[in-house]
Every structure is written in structure tokens, then in C-alpha cells.
Design brief:
Blueprint: H1 16-33, E1 37-38, E2 44-46, H2 47-54, E3 64-66, E4 72-75, H3 80-90, E5 98-107, E6 119-128, H4 134-150, E7 156-162, H5 163-173, H6 178-186, H7 193-202, H8 207-220, H9 226-237, H10 243-261, E8 268-270, E9 284-290, E10 297-303, H11 307-310, E11 318-324, H12 325-334, E12 347-351, H13 357-369, E13 374-376, H14 383-392, E14 397-401, E15 410-415, E16 421-425
């Protein structure tokens, strides 16, 4: 019986591997353009690192095992704990603000489904040391740059909120179990209205108040656009929210004003149902979602001002986001924007006379050293088959060695898009363009 890839994992043969490599390249280009520097962490960490951040329940989705020293270790399920560990070790010497990005594989033992595998690539942006909304603005602006760079321009928008608002709504409507309340709100768009009201009831909200809150969320739809935000926040504040929740409203107002100046008003809405499931978020939270289809989340993130302290680091304001490769691939493929694979090769050297094959090898090496991508036939194929191979490789041109009609000391250059040919001096081929 032939071996098969494990359930929840994927192979990426060509051209898929090349396409994914191109996506990673574009992400790195965008992040560096925005002033982020790359951080690389190990793929195995102490399991205790995840317990500090997420508690005992994290074990259910972690690839947990014991190493040869009988230590509990885990495959990395997210990079934020590693970032916190590394920053804590360097905090005294690291100039603020810290703007890091990571791009590496992570592993979660989850039930595989569309857009979710047990091994996937995650791209993270994090800012540490910035207490104000400038951090969230920079993160969302950079995320927009990244998404546009990989080909998703026009396909996404951001939902933004503040957890203090959701907490204030919970207190206002009588929630006694805030954890269950947050879990219910986080699932609002994923479950039927009756089930949502039932979950609000389980959080301690009376049935009549649960219906009232559900109706309020329904009025929000898929979010409040910036041009309607001021009136909506004014009405929301008049419902009797407490001081902490009203502070959240003010943060949202200020953030949207800055996002407008950053040129993001056309792709951001306010949505109080965005709370994010992770307990360490402290105020601002946000998601990117596909504008069409089922509104699938492309990434999530927010502010986590107390996480560094959990790792015995100094009090450090922080915010970040994480983009998974699987949902991004679904979005791009669904709109015909997935890359073709590896970039096309520039030059394919074709040999007519087999005795001149060593010359073809020499030309290929000269071109490569000059910075030109080049290859040649390795299977002694006919000229026509070599040209077909050049076309399959999407080469820009073919250099044909050994045509009888070519002048001595030249090769024939054929433009593979137009078919036009010209003779080129052999001595000029290895010169930098």
C-alpha cells in the first residue's frame, strides 16, 4: 500500500509550492516596506509557554509530546508566546517601538475542514511599546498593504470594535458569566438567532433582554460604515453604557478618524459583535473578512497590553494580528488571483547540434552568474521538443545554439511571445543587463 499524507496535512508539489513561495515573498516585501523586521522562532517550544498564555485548555489542540529528557514540549501552535518570550529576554536593550513580523509554519490538532489544516503557514504582525491607537492604525494599514500586495485588493474589508464596548453591553443587559457572554457574541454570525438568544440566556441574560440585544446586533448587519459611525456611536452611548464602555466608544471614534487619514475608510466598518475569542485581548479588536461569500474571516487581531507581563516582562503595550495561509488561498483562488507558480524562467538555451551541448552548458552558467535565470535541455531532445519545453517553462526567450544559418560567433535569440529572431554575439551573453 503506497504511503499517504497524514490527515490534516497537505503536499505542495509544483506549481503550488512556487505559488506559495511567491505569496510569502510578497508578504515580506510589504511588511518591510512598512518598517517591520523579521523574527524567526523555533518550531518546538516548552508546553509551559502555551499554558502561561492560554491555560490548561490549550492542550486539546496542541501537538504535545515528551522529549528524550521527559520534558513536556509542543509544536508551535502560534507565534505570539514565542514573541513574548523573546521580547522579555531582550526588553531592556530593545528600542521602542518594536515592529516585528513572523512568517512560519504552525501546528494545531484541530478537525480538518475547508480553510483549516493541522499544519499551516501563519503571517504575524506585532507592535510593542505603543499605548495609543497609532499601533492599531499601523497594523491595519500594513495588513491592507500585505493583502493588496498578494493580490486581494478589493476583496476584503476590516471589522473593528473594542472589547470594552462588548463588556459594557454585557453588564447593561445583565450577563452574569462574562466568559460565556463573550463566547456567545463571538459566535453571533455563525449560529441561528434562536441559538444565539439561548447562549445569551446561558450567560445569565433574561429572555426579554436577550431578544432586545439580539435585535440590536441584527440592526448592525455586517457593520457600520465610517460615514454613519458618529450617529451610531452617539445612539449606542445613550443606551446607558458605563464609563469603561464609553471609553471604548471614544477609542473607536479616534481610531476611525486616524484610519480615515490613512486612506482606509473604504474598507473598514464598526461591528460590536467582533470580540475575538482569546482572553488576552484588552481593548481594540479587529478582523479582516471577504466582502463576498459567507464573510469568512481572513485574519484576526487586537490589543494585548498585559501579555508580556505574563511572561515576567515589563509592562508593555502591544497589539498584533495573524493571517493564516489557508483562508487567504481560498480567497485568492476563488477570484482567479492565485499566482501561477514559480516566476517564469528568462532564458532557455536550445541546442541544435548535440556536439555543441558543452557550449550550451557554458552559456547557461554565464547567464546565471550575470543574474539571469536560465536553463537548458538535459535529455538530448529534438529542437522542437526543446522549444516546447521552453514554452512550458514560460521562458521569455530561447537562445538557439548551432543553427547552420547563424554567423560564426553568434547564437540565435528567439522571442517566444512574438516569434521574432535575431542574431546575438556569443561574447555578449554573460554580461550583466
Amino acid at each position: 500500500m503506497p504511503f499517504q499524507v497524514l490527515r490534516g496535512f497537505r503536499d505542495y508539489p509544483p506549481p503550488d509550492a512556487g505559488a506559495r513561495s511567491e505569496i510569502r515573498r510578497r508578504m515580506r516585501v510589504a511588511a518591510r516596506r512598512a518598517g517591520y523586521t523579521e523574527l524567526e522562532a523555533p518550531c518546538v517550544e516548552s508546553f509551559e509557554l502555551y499554558q502561561v498564555k492560554s491555560g490548561e485548555g490549550i492542550a486539546a489542540e496542541t501537538w504535545l509530546f515528551r522529549d528524550k529528557g521527559n520534558r513536556a514540549v509542543a509544536l508551535v501552535s502560534e507565534t505570539t508566546p514565542s514573541l513574548a518570550r523573546i521580547f522579555t529576554d531582550r526588553a531592556k536593550a530593545e528600542p521602542m517601538p518594536v515592529k516585528w513580523f513572523t512568517l512560519q509554519k504552525v501546528w494545531r490538532y484541530e478537525e480538518p475542514q475547508a480553510g483549516r489544516t493541522r499544519e499551516f503557514l501563519q503571517f504575524n504582525l506585532d507592535i510593542l511599546g505603543v499605548p495609543g491607537i497609532e499601533a492599531e492604525t499601523d497594523l491595519l494599514a500594513t495588513a491592507a498593504l500585505v493583502l493588496d500586495e498578494v493580490g486581494a485588493s478589493g476583496l476584503y474589508a476590516f471589522r473593528v470594535s473594542d472589547r470594552a464596548i462588548a463588556e459594557g453591553l454585557g453588564r447593561l443587559y445583565g450577563a452574569r458569566d462574562m466568559t460565556r457572554f463573550f463566547r456567545a457574541v463571538d459566535r453571533y454570525h455563525k449560529i441561528p438567532p434562536a441559538e444565539f438568544e439561548g447562549e445569551l440566556g446561558a450567560a445569565g441574560i433574561p429572555a426579554d433582554r436577550a431578544r432586545e440585544l439580539a435585535a440590536f446586533f441584527e440592526s448592525v448587519g455586517r457593520g457600520i460604515a465610517p460615514d454613519a459611525l458618529a450617529a451610531f456611536l452617539e445612539a449606542l452611548g445613550s443606551r446607558g453604557l458605563d464609563e469603561e464602555a464609553r471609553a471604548g466608544l471614544e477609542r473607536v471614534r479616534a481610531l476611525f478618524a486616524l484610519l480615515d487619514r490613512a486612506g482606509l475608510a473604504d474598507r473598514v466598518v464598526f461591528d460590536p459583535t467582533v470580540v475575538r475569542g482569546l482572553a488576552y485581548y484588552t481593548s481594540t479588536v479587529f478582523e479582516a473578512y471577504a466582502r463576498d461569500g459567507d464573510g469568512r474571516a481572513i485574519f484576526g487581531g487586537g490589543r494585548y497590553d498585559h501579555l508580556i507581563e505574563l511572561f515576567e516582562g515589563p509592562p508593555t503595550p502591544a497589539a498584533g494580528l495573524a493571517i493564516g495561509d489557508q483562508t487567504l488561498e481560498i480567497l485568492l483562488r476563488g477570484h482567479g488571483r492565485w499566482p501561477d507558480g514559480e516566476p517564469p524562467i528568462d532564458t532557455y538555451v536550445v541546442v541544435v547540434d548535440p556536439t555543441r551541448r558543452p557550449e550550451a552548458v557554458e552559456i547557461v552558467q554565464e547567464l546565471r552568474r550575470a543574474g539571469v535565470s536560465a536553463d537548458c535541455d538535459l535529455l538530448s531532445r529534438s529542437m522542437s521538443r526543446q522549444l516546447r519545453e521552453a514554452a512550458r517553462r514560460r521562458s521569455r526567450r530561447a537562445l538557439i545554439v548551432g543553427l547552420k544559418e547563424a554567423a560564426p560567433g553568434t547564437v540565435v535569440e528567439r522571442d517566444l511571445a512574438t516569434g521574432e529572431q535575431r542574431e546575438v554575439a556569443r561574447s555578449s551573453l554573460g554580461r550583466p543587463a
